[in-house]
């Protein structure tokens, strides 16, 4: 397990006020943090605090500087309009499965960008997970943790959820992005073990994680939001590649999302799915798909694959209080592919 936890960031979050009036921030700190022109310095809080401490005027204690930075964050938040404020995830703890790379990795970054309080990545790929934590921790002042988890393994998923709640007190947001694809396998020759494996990861795995996190959310009696990354393949049959199992798995994910949304509305847990079209990720960067990609582009009204970060804002919207009346919805994000 790889943990990057900034002591300063943790204490900042703990002290971060919920209801905010514009707090006092000293001019020197505003200057050091680089927001004199309304722009915020991209450096992590811990780093700016350290620099501020080094450059601190004589007699100013480190605790005063830290306090200034806490106020700085609060001031920044209070400057947002009520509508923009709803997109922020201050105080929320998020888990992203499949967050070590691809769409999940980018969504994880977007959640940090809208100020989630802690982020936990569940993925089988340890090396990629560690890299993601290191990169994100450079950019953001939130605790970010990687847990090596196979979503098929309900015991290790439960352990990871229990650990997360132990570390951060709760889970508010779950993004299920872990998934695999098998393409170009004619149904008549589909190996049954491969078929079962894909269903086990894409559909059963989504349920395994949702059940463990759902139970934590029910126990903690707070609101929660779950987002499952399904696919347009849950709506249409892709052309020309034969991928019956993948398509069926994603149709299952969409209906699982609606079913859980109906069951868990009573517990104030919202469940929505996102159905992407063809996205330019490692999943599709295989030579065997090169010729087919030409066809995919032709069949997409926008004429291109989606960029790897083009689900980010949709995920933020569904995770946040900007979508409090949405549950059981499936949002297509496919460059128009399913229009034709
Ligand atoms: N790329 C696309 O065109 C596209 C389109 C529609 C839907 N999707 C879906 O989006 C999701 C993310 O896809 P991506 O393109 O980012 O793929 P990706 O392969 O880049 O990322 C998937 C991540 O899931 C992880 N994962 C796979 N099996 C796992 C398991 N058993 N346990 C835990 N983690 C596991 C992988 O290690 C990886 O980090 C998938 O569910 C995929 O089906 C992708």
From TrEMBL:
PANTHER family listed in its UniProt record: SHORT-CHAIN DEHYDROGENASE_REDUCTASE SDR (PTHR42760:SF103), SHORT-CHAIN DEHYDROGENASES/REDUCTASES FAMILY MEMBER (PTHR42760)
Record-level GO BP terms: mannitol metabolic process
Segments traversing the membrane: none
Superkingdom field: Eukaryota
Keyword annotations from UniProtKB, A to Z: NADP, Oxidoreductase
Organism: Pyronema omphalodes (strain CBS 100304) (Pyronema confluens)
Family: Belongs to the short-chain dehydrogenases/reductases (SDR) family.
One Pfam family per UniProt: adh_short_C2
GO molecular function terms listed in the Swiss-Prot or TrEMBL record: mannitol 2-dehydrogenase (NADP+) activity
Protein transport in keyword set: no
Protein name (record): Similar to L-xylulose reductase acc. no. Q8NK50
